[in-house]
């Protein structure tokens, strides 16, 4: 594979093995993300591999994120959705930005993304994100963390998030979302907003990608 050989020659110092420079599945994923533009794929892939090493993705364990996870602010649902996608649930009302060290929240985010992706059935490539916005208030807004989340998804887990559902969004959420939309880049187009749980439950079955 041309990309694999180029990585070995020009980026020999990068780690190998799963999620490394010789991981053919990972290489193919970034090629598809960059529409098989080799140089663009290599640029984005090497950035992702370096980030995984620097962030210590392989060292994050359930025990290491136990304290942040105990809040219930985010978790991977036990069941897949009706299209066989793993479901990542986020409950922003349980997120108080100053309660924990920022790094704890970031590590929990990455741990749950890895967990959700590990549950992908054969033939499936994307996960579903559901934001349960019941009880959300301004004290829970955290544009900085939201930017981190979508940067991680865009640069390091591209095209892994298939759809985002905002459920029971209160009035106060609307101006927060207007501020956030430019920060989350193209992922804003994946978002469906439901202003009540009943509308969400009624509509979810008719959504083509659900």
Keywords:
single chain, about 10% strand, five-stranded mixed sheet, 2 domains, disordered C terminus, about 210 residues, globular, Phosphatidylinositol Transfer Protein Sec14p, alpha/beta, 8 helices, 5 strands
Main sheet: strands, sense, barrel: 5 strands, mixed
**How many separate helices?**
8
Order of helices and strands: HHHHEEHEHEHEH
Approximate strand percentage: 5-15%
- What's the arrangement of strands in the largest beta sheet? 1-2-3-4-5
Query: What fold name stands as the CATH topology of the largest domain?
Result: Phosphatidylinositol Transfer Protein Sec14p
Radius of gyration: 18 Å
CATH class of the largest domain: Alpha Beta
Number of domains: 2
Which structural class do you get from the secondary structure elements?
alpha/beta
Tally of extended strands?
5
What is the CATH architecture term of the largest domain? 3-Layer(aba) Sandwich
Describe the structure.
The chain is of the alpha/beta class. It has 2 domains: 2-59, no CATH class; 67-206, CRAL-TRIO lipid binding domain (Phosphatidylinositol Transfer Protein Sec14p). It has helices at residues 2-10, 24-33, 38-55, 66-69, 102-118, 143-156, 173-180, 197-203; strands at residues 74-76, 87-90, 127-132, 161-167, 191-194. A 5-stranded mixed β-sheet has the order 1-2-3-4-5. Strand 2, helix 5 and strand 3 (127-132) form a beta-alpha-beta unit. Helix 2 crosses helix 3 and helix 5 runs parallel beside helix 6. The longest helix has 18 residues, at 38-55. It is globular and about 55 Å long. It starts with a helix and ends in a 7-residue tail after the last helix. Residues 201-210 have low confidence and may be disordered. InterPro entries: CRAL-TRIO_dom (IPR001251), CRAL-TRIO_dom_sf (IPR036865), CRAL/TRIO_N_dom_sf (IPR036273). Keywords: Membrane, Transmembrane, Transmembrane helix. Residues 62-210 form the CRAL-TRIO domain. The chain crosses the membrane at residues 187-207. This is Sec14p-like phosphatidylinositol transfer family protein.
């Amino acid at each position: 594979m041309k990309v694999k050989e180029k990585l070995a020659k020009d980026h020999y110092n990068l780690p190998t093995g799963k999620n490394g420079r010789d991981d053919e599945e990972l290489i193919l994923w970034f090629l598809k993300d960059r529409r098989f533009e080799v140089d663009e794929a290599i640029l984005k892939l090497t950035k992702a591999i370096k980030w995984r090493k620097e962030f210590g993705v392989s060292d994050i364990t359930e025990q290491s994120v136990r304290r942040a996870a105990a809040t219930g602010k985010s978790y991977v649902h036990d069941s897949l959705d009706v299209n066989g996608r793993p479901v990542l649930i986020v409950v922003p009302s349980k997120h108080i930005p100053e309660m924990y060290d920022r790094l704890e929240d970031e590590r929990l985010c990455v741990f749950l993304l890895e967990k959700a992706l590990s549950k992908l059935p054969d033939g499936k490539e994307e996960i579903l994100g559901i934001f349960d916005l019941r009880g959300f208030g301004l004290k829970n807004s955290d544009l900085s963390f939201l930017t981190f989340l979508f940067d991680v998804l865009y640069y390091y887990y591209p095209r892994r998030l298939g759809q985002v559902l905002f459920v029971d969004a209160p009035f106060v959420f609307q101006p927060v979302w207007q501020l956030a939309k430019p920060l989350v880049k193209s992922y804003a187009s994946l978002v469906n907003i439901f202003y009540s749980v009943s509308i969400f439950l009624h509509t979810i079955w008719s959504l083509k990608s659900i």
